[in-house]
Amino acid sequence: PEATTYVVTILAPDLTELTRLEPVTETHAELARGALDTSLIPDGQLLWKVLAMRNTDEIARSPMMPLTLPR
After folding, report:
1. Contact 9, 47 (CB under 8 A)
2. Which of 3, 19, 41, 42 keeps 20 to 30 A from 13, CA to CA?
3. What's the rounded Cα separation, in Å, for the pair 46 and 12?
4. For residue 16, is pLDDT > 70?
5. pTM, 2 dp
6. Is 39 helix (H, G, I), strand (E, B) or coil?
7. 24-59: per-residue pLDDT in tens?
8. What integer pLDDT is reported at residue 31 of this predicted model?
9. How many beta carbons lie within 10 A of that of residue 23, not counting itself?
10. 45, 28, 24, 27: which is closest to 36 by C-alpha?
């Protein structure tokens, strides 16, 4: 089964959702510089996960993975 869209979610270390990127059809996404208030993330360590969707149904979910923001 193929996904029609992917949804990337960025989370704080305490698992608070910081942002959810607009669904994309490609297997890559970009988080624009300045999209997050980095003053709330002093060490630059976050988590991210991806949901694979077929239309409105979730068909797969990635594990949460570490994400280090550039300084």
Report:
1. no
2. 3
3. 5
4. yes
5. 0.83
6. helix
7. 999 888 888 778 877 767 787 899 999 999 999 999
8. 82
9. 14
10. 45
Tokens (6 digits) for 32: 């624009």
The identity of residue 4, as a single letter, is T
d(CA 50, CA 60): 8
- Which amino acid type is present at position 28? H
Quick one: which of 8, 10, 9, 6 has its CA closest to 45? 10
d(CA 15, CA 25) in angstroms, rounded, equals 25
Which residues lie below 8 Å from residue 70, measured CB to CB, with a gap of 6+? 44
Cross-strand partners of 65: 48
Residue whose entry in the numeric block shows the structure tokens 């280090």: 68
Question: Six-digit token pair at 36?
Answer: 């997050």
